[in-house]
Amino acid sequence: MALSNFGSRALTGDALYDDSISRVRRDCDRIFSDFFNDFPRALSVGHVGPSTGGYIPRVDVREVDNNIVVHAELPGVPKENVNVDIRDNNLILSGENKQENDYDTSTGWVRERRFGRFQRSIPLPANVNIEKSCAKFSDGVLEIKLPRTQESTGRRINVE
């Protein structure tokens, strides 16, 4: 009977096969998830993603009480490394999560956390009051509130 030692856990026969298949399945799921989640953004200019050494933060965008509210997950990123800009009706989140230098690859089993530069551009409607916008960062989540202004209802212009 073959016996393989993986740290303190010993696996034999079917258990070794099941563990290997689970690992391959998990890796394939992650690869396809990264590809399909990042592909549309990879086509945009200035993309920073897994293929370039960085990552793209996950965001939720919704309207609450006449504000556009954006929540971005930035776990482990110091507040000082986060930039929020508004340019050409786009909200641009950028920054960097620096990799820890004390990670020993010879003893590491799994490394799934992402490090590096990130950038995310979110199109905004033209009716956002940039001057009254605000952002706060707590527990690895960036929250940005962008108050909406009165929408233009339009009007007819008479031709003379």
Automatic annotation (TrEMBL):
Keywords: Stress response. Residues 54-158 form the CS domain. It comes from the Eukaryota. Gene3D superfamilies: 2.60.40.790. It holds the Pfam family HSP20. Residues 50-160 form the SHSP domain. InterPro entries: A-crystallin/Hsp20_dom, CS_dom, HSP20-like_chaperone, Small_HSP. Belongs to the small heat shock protein (HSP20) family. This is Uncharacterized protein.
